[in-house]
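Hey, can you fold this one?
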Amino acid sequence: MTRVAKFYKAVDTAREGRGFVVRLDGKAVKTPARVLLSLPTAPLADAIAEEWRSQTEIVDPTAMPLTRFAYAAIDVAPAYRARLTDEILAYAKSDLLCYRADAPAALIARQNGAWNPLLDWAAERFGARLKTGTGIAFVEQSAESQAAFAKAVHGRDDFALVGLHGAASLTGSLVLGLALTEGRLAAGQAFALSCLDETFQAEAWGRDAEAAARAGRLGAELAAVERFLTLSRP
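Sure. Predicted structure:
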């Protein structure tokens, strides 16, 4: 999806078959693969319609995250489900929450206080108990925990799978991704937890403008993922 000059005037939504479509001047939107953009819920269709409606002279895909995610759910997820699933489950093998500092004591305490409850939740919710370690050495996770996470990921519909992929990728953590997907955490909370180390360092040394801008972009993308997941649920 590339930037193009705006080519339509009216935007509305309609029920079509089992789903909902967005129409531009009466014509239903299609994905880049030329497949009908059929959405599972009316609220998601309304939100995507608003993204199209809010464009001015140029249709800018970067300002249309829900549209992009919906395209991925329709064009990418069905054809590459195994690849997406493998990429999601890779975060269970090297989950951010499992890698802890060995100093200073204040950072260790902050990581334990913020991250341990999420690991406990994952163990209770999915039967997946992850091990933690200090430093940069790889932490080998059990086959049992990997199988439990695989069970938690498999079977999700294409829209949920795309949302989970985005959440895990943006946070570097399958636990945080699942917590967001299941409503255990809001996007702002999940993002703050994923940036705990950086925030700790910034408190001591300050944060440069480039890092702050990048954090703002990633946080906004994660908030869009959360909205996509919420609006996609029947």
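The longest strand covers residues 11-16. Let me know if you want another pass with a different chain boundary.
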